[in-house]
Amino acid sequence: MDSTYLRLSIEDACNLRCRYCRPERDLDFGEPALEGRPVLGQDALIGLVSACHRVLPIYKLRLTGGEPLIRADVVELVARLRDMLPEVELCMTTNGTMLEKLAVPLKQAGLDRINLSLDTLDADRYRDLTRGGRLADVLAGIRAAKDAGFDKLKLNAVLLESGNGSSLRDLVYFGAEQGCEVRFIELMPISVAAGMHRKEFLSADMARQRLAESFEDLGATSSDSTASRVRFMVKGQKQTVGFIPSVSHPFCKTCDRLRMDSRGRLFACLRRPEGLDLAGALARGDEAEVERRIQRVLDAKCPAVSVWPGRQMSAIGG
Description:
Layout: E1 4-9, H1 42-55, E2 58-64, H2 74-84, E3 89-94, H3 99-109, E4 113-117, H4 123-130, H5 135-148, E5 154-158, H6 168-178, E6 181-185, H7 197-200, H8 204-212, E7 216-223, E8 228-234, E9 237-244, E10 257-260, E11 265-267, E12 276-277, H9 279-283, H10 287-299
Parallel strand pairs: 1-2, 1-10, 2-3, 3-4, 4-5, 5-6, 6-9
Antiparallel strand pairs: 7-8, 8-9, 10-11, 11-12
Helix pairs in contact: 1-10, 2-3, 3-5
């Protein structure tokens, strides 16, 4: 790799508890080493991102969670990252429920793009799936983001047989109406999702077949390291739909991602059970050691392990 896509978790907490992502009770990492260790502050996050960029240039930086908008200083953090990395594509993935008031400040701070999580357009089903979330809040967030000038919104939907398997076309219709690209993501058997995986798993190939029953499939248009993009004819217009088949068609050989959790551990792969701690060396002021550890993670990038880890998805930022 000559550059990397870094996914940076800036917050563990979330205001939703989606059934495939978080347990019903408070998050338990199951890792004693993390107990009592706080989420990193701005200076530490900035320092670690800077170190990663020195070792291997970052071409894309995505802020994730938990829910990143829970952080009280999220707008200031975005602004500082924008100043430090003016040429890097700066993105965020959010559940959208807090976006209505923050869309304009985030745009002004320099955020380039937003992906919103939206698994269903049925308010009751959304409330059940998220354990209490309000669909209206997400829809208000989408409107606010568009009004703020985020003109390339993507809507992420985790494929769930009982959750949205019979209503995929509704999400595509909605995406076409809103001018958004819908991306269907296969359910990964990580932690709480492992117990529901056999019953709920719906492959990207099957999702595409179901959509082809409602829309004319115009064929694949492009792909990147993780997603394929297909065009469908929706109400007389070509609508792009993304598919991320991380389970049925793993893309380990072409993956250029690194992941950093909110405590400063760097992971070569979502499927690797261990991350390498960078925060300790940074706190000691040992920048050379931070960079050595980053290089060790890069050296371990391939091959991916064959099992799925037991950690919570939200502990590594998804």
